[in-house]
Amino acid sequence: MLGLLCQSAWANPECIVAAKPGGGMDVSCKLRKKAIRAGGMTQELALNYLPGGIGAVAWSSVVSHRRGGADSLVTFSGGSLLNLAQGKYGKAGIADVRWVAAIGTDYGMIVVRKDSPYRNLRELFSAIQQDPSKVTIGASGTVGSQDWLKIALIARYAKVDPKNFRFVALEGGGEAFTALQANYVQVVSGDASEAALYAPEGKFRVLAVLSDARLPGVLADVPTAREQGFDVTWPLIRGFYMSPYASDADYKRWVGIFDKMMKSKEFEQQRQISGLFPFAMTGSELTEYIKKTVEHYKKQSQELDLIR
């Protein structure tokens, strides 16, 4: 019955990736596309890209009703929530959209090229301390973004002032790894799911994951930052929101699809392949979680003098 409802409810279901191809948000949409039938949908799911401002362009388009109706869900990540907390989406607030589902947890990581002279975090930050101009760091977003914060927190333990970073702002994980491969940047601060996607190519060396313990899968041999003497962890959720103009019925249908999908073995397998870790939350429970998370990020950003 659910499948029939879904089939008649949306003419052209789509997943809007709020970044360029190849990053963590792309991973979220592709995971959903592969596992969506386990939630009762019989239609194909289109993937469309709407990059810009680490999610700001997609957010504005959906809130203004230019894109994304009842057929569309938009990716978000912990970085999106941090941008909301810091006011980088203008006067936007969490009540401006409808939060549908979180499908997994990701973690921060630090990566260099395979031929890099840096084999661990201490070697990297020793070089930055000696001459910050020789190490260009690439990350999604500008100063104060989620990826900038990850490496800035590590830098504080290494007695390095993040203000001295030679920093390049990039748009999404795909662009960051392309820049790293081209040696346009020498280091990338990003997400473990992105590293898991590119690690099999053998062109990169992940120096650390920002998790409590080592991660399973292709990054199993990568030490945590804590193991290397830097007490920094950075978990982040990945999920989807939808237009504030969607009806209650459409919203509930999408929530129901995700509730069913995330209980399936097919979804669990695809989540593992995508490099994400268990975290399943939908509807009102997710909305309350996001409210608390944004408040936490705002407080953290104030402590780092990123906002007032």
Key attributes of the depicted protein:
single chain, about 300 residues, alpha/beta, D-Maltodextrin-Binding Protein, domain 2, 2 domains, disordered N terminus
Descriptive overview:
The protein has 308 residues and is of the alpha/beta class. It has 2 domains: 2-106 and 235-303, 3-Layer(aba) Sandwich (D-Maltodextrin-Binding Protein, domain 2); 107-228, D-Maltodextrin-Binding Protein, domain 2, CATH 3.40.190. The chain is globular. The protein has 11 helices and 10 strands. Strands 1, 2, 3, 4, 5, 6, 7, 8, 9 and 10 form a 10-stranded mixed β-sheet that branches. Residues 1-8 have low confidence and may be disordered.
Short structural description:
This protein is an alpha/beta fold.
Shape: globular
The CATH class assignment of the largest domain is Alpha Beta
> H/E order of the elements?
HEHEHEHEHEHEHEHEEHHEH
Query: Which strand-content bin applies to the residues?
Result: 15-25%
Q: What integer is the average pLDDT?
A: 89
Residue runs with pLDDT of under 50 for 5 or more positions: 1-8
Question: What can be said about the biggest beta sheet?
Answer: 10 strands, mixed
How many runs of DSSP E, i.e. beta strands?
Answer: 10
Q: How many domain modules?
A: 2
- CATH topological fold name of the largest domain: D-Maltodextrin-Binding Protein, domain 2
- Given helix and strand content, the structural type is alpha/beta
Task: Please tally the helical runs, counting DSSP H or I stretches of 4 or more residues.
Answer: 11
